[in-house]
Amino acid sequence: MAGFANAAKTRAGDASKAGEDPAGGAARAIAPTTTSNENPLLRSGLVLAGANQLRSGDEDGILTAMEASGLDLWGTKLVVLSACETGVGKVTNGEGVYGLRRSLVIAGAESLVMSLWQVDDLATKDLMAGYYSKLAAGRGRSSALRDTQLELAAQGKYAHPYYWASFLAAGANSPINKDDP
Question: How large is the average pLDDT for residues 8-34?
Answer without folding.
Answer: 40
